[in-house]
Amino acid sequence: MIFPCIDIHTHDKSRINAVINIYPHENLIEGAFHSVGIHPWQTTDIDLSTIEKLNTLASHPQVVAIGETGIDTLKGASIDKQIDIFKLHISLSEQVKKPLIIHCVKAFNEIITIKKQLKTSMPWIIHGFRGKPQLTQQLLNNGFYISLGEHFNSQSATIIPSDRLFFETDESSLDINTIIKNIKGFLFS
Predict the structure, then answer these.
(1) Among 2, 47, 93, 145, which has the minimal tally of Cβ within 10 Å of its Cβ?
(2) How far, in Å, CA of 14 to CA of 96, rounded?
(3) Using CA atoms, how far apart are residues 15 and 39, in angstroms rounded to an integer?
(4) Residues 60-76: pLDDT tens digits?
């Protein structure tokens, strides 16, 4: 088991049994689990103090994952800058031995190529995945884990092995049990 809770990615700070995503400038919530990272959309305004805060928080015992990080071709800094910041997160994930939560928009080839090049040991989890079955299989073949939320591709959901599947609320107003019930209801109908 990678995570001590069932909702592996949310931005809702009131969630329980969840990994609450925070950014380096935010404080940890007492008694909660967190992931910490620089979202691709925030990559335009990164300074040394943000990197230092990320490095400091990453080692904290309440931080159970690194990210949300990744590449988004539609928003954020240049792709080159996003890749540099993504690689910083990858290195940090390996250093502190915590999984990586990945945001990816129209950059799966780049993400897969980086994973192959770096030969990492920590799990990489694509969060909020909605891709088609062909992409799902490609990610699975390259060792990725996949997290599904309120919106997902039903055909893809059927090919994700249970030991590589996670659930999340992300920014949904639905609770995690409803999301899991909806996904499992589809899978076992």
Answers:
(1) 47
(2) 26
(3) 20
(4) 999 999 999 999 999 99
